[in-house]
């Protein structure tokens, strides 16, 4: 399985810190704007990118 790179995680964390206001936890990848999502995907594209993004963002919510 191909995981997210540190650069992808950094960009996702920046997005999360700017945009997460609580209240939702699941399917957070659907909340990312298309431009940001595509920029992060282009770093290391894979078939399960969407799932990896959701898992990472859910972990960030759990850490709050």
Q: Any overview of this molecule?
A:
- There is one protein chain.
- The chain has 64 residues and is mainly alpha-helical.
- The protein is 61% helix and 0% strand.
- It has one domain (6-63).
- It has helices at residues 6-19, 34-43, 49-63.
- It starts with 5 loop residues before the first helix and ends with a helix.
- The mean pLDDT is 90.
Alpha-carbon Rg, integer = 11 Å
How much helical structure, as a percent, in the residues?
A: 55-70%
SSE order: HHH
**Largest sheet at a glance?**
none
Instruction: Briefly note the structural class of the backbone.
Output: mainly alpha
Number of strands: 0
Q: Work out the helix count.
A: 3
- Shape call: globular
Compute the number of structural domains: 1
Query: Mean pLDDT, rounded to whole units?
Result: 90
Strand composition percent: under 5%
Question: What is the terminal separation in angstroms?
Answer: 27 Å
Low-confidence stretches: none
Short key terms for the protein model shown above:
globular; single chain; 64 residues; mainly alpha
């Amino acid at each position: 399985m191909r995981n997210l790179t540190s650069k992808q995680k950094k960009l996702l964390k920046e997005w999360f810190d700017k945009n997460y206001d609580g209240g939702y936890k699941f399917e957070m990848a659907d909340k990312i704007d298309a431009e940001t999502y595509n920029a992060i995907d282009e770093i290391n594209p894979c078939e399960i990118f969407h799932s990896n993004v959701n898992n990472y963002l859910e972990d960030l919510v759990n850490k709050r």
